[in-house]
């Protein structure tokens, strides 16, 4: 761990040195990671474009973050911009919700995804180089079993306000109910997620279903029960695709992984 910390400090110092060289001399220095070299400004520009492509769903089916974008994604997720983006999105959500006239029959619904919408897996993905390492199902399951996720910044406040407004909030997740039901429920409650209408997880009947099919089926069932879905919030495009999407969808940023 100590050697890894020393290496990280060295990388940061090199990063700062190259930035100063570029500013003083006007020469674009080479910043290299993993054997791939590009002028630093070009590399950063590429990673900005890649992240935009991910968030606009133009880049699809990707398995890992490009290794040359590790520093960019780390800086985005931990340097403050991620939180600022979340605050803007929550502001838009609440502005929209404030304009909805609730019927009073208890059937005005709102849907929130769980992983990296309500519960943050940032600490886990830090150990996976912020998505540069391939997805590891057993390791993620072991992490989720611990029930130690923190809340996604601004998400807990959004949840409380939606409940206070009178919406029936449904939490829908692809996590397996049989093995992860208890730790997920306890994790949510420990972070102040009380008062939701239902936590809906995968059962044996949903095994093998893609995210779009699974979540479409859940939403369609809720509409069959009479619920009006006013809003749908998720960090993956597959949370916001398919049938019975609701009146309006909101995408939470997540450049660390892609769920098909």
What can you tell me about this protein's structure?
Strands 7-6-3-8-9 form a five-stranded parallel β-sheet, sandwiched between helices. Strands 1-2 form a two-stranded antiparallel sheet. It is of the alpha/beta class. It contains nine helices and nine strands. It folds into two domains: 2-63, no CATH class; 82-251, 3-Layer(aba) Sandwich (Rossmann fold). The chain has helices at residues 2-25, 40-55, 70-78, 81-98, 122-126, 137-146, 155-165, 177-190, 211-224, and strands at 30-33, 36-39, 108-113, 119-120, 150-151, 168-176, 198-202, 228-234, 248-251.
Write out the CATH superfamily name of the largest domain: HAD superfamily/HAD-like
* Helix share bin: 40-55%
- Report Rg: 20 Å
Q: Order the strands across the largest sheet as they lie in space.
A: 7-6-3-8-9
Number of helices: 9
The chain-level structural class is alpha/beta
Q: Strand count, sense and closure of the main sheet?
A: 5 strands, parallel
Q: Flag low-confidence runs.
A: 29-37
Oligomer: single chain
Distance between the termini: 34 Å
N-to-C order of helices and strands: HEEHHHEEHHEHEHEHEE
Name the shape in a single word. globular
Range of strand content: 15-25%
Number of domains: 2
CATH architecture of the largest domain: 3-Layer(aba) Sandwich
Give the total of beta strands.
9
The CATH topology of the largest domain corresponds to: Rossmann fold
The CATH class label of the largest domain is Alpha Beta
Mean pLDDT: 90
Protein name: Acid phosphatase 1
Function: May function as somatic storage protein during early seedling development.
Keywords: Glycoprotein, Signal, Storage protein
Family: Belongs to the APS1/VSP family.
């Amino acid at each position: 761990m100590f050697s890894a910390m020393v290496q990280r400090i060295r990388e940061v110092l090199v990063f700062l040195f190259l930035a100063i060289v570029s500013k003083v001399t006007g020469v674009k220095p080479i910043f290299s990671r993993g054997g791939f070299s590009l002028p630093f400004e070009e590399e950063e520009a590429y990673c900005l474009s890649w992240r935009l492509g991910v968030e606009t769903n133009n880049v699809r089916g990707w398995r890992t973050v490009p290794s040359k974008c590790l520093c960019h994604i780390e800086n985005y997720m931990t340097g403050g911009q991620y939180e600022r983006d979340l605050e803007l999105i929550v502001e838009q959500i609440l502005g929209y919700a404030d304009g909805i006239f609730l019927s009073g029959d208890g059937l005005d619904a709102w849907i929130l995804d769980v992983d990296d919408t309500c519960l943050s897996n940032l600490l886990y993905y830090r150990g996976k180089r912020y998505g540069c390492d391939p997805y590891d199902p057993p390791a993620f399951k072991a992490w989720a079993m611990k029930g130690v996720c923190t809340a996604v910044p601004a998400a807990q406040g959004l949840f409380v306000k939606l409940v206070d407004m009178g919406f029936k909030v449904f939490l829908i997740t692809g996590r397996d109910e049989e093995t992860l039901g208890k730790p997920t429920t306890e994790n949510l409650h420990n972070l102040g997620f009380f008062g939701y209408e239902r936590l809906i997880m995968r059962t044996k009947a949903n095994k093998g279903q893609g995210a779009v099919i699974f979540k479409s089926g859940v939403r369609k069932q809720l509409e069959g029960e009479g619920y009006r879905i006013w809003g749908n919030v998720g960090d993956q495009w597959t949370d916001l695709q398919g049938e019975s999407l609701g009146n309006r969808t909101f995408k939470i940023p997540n450049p660390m992984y892609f769920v098909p």
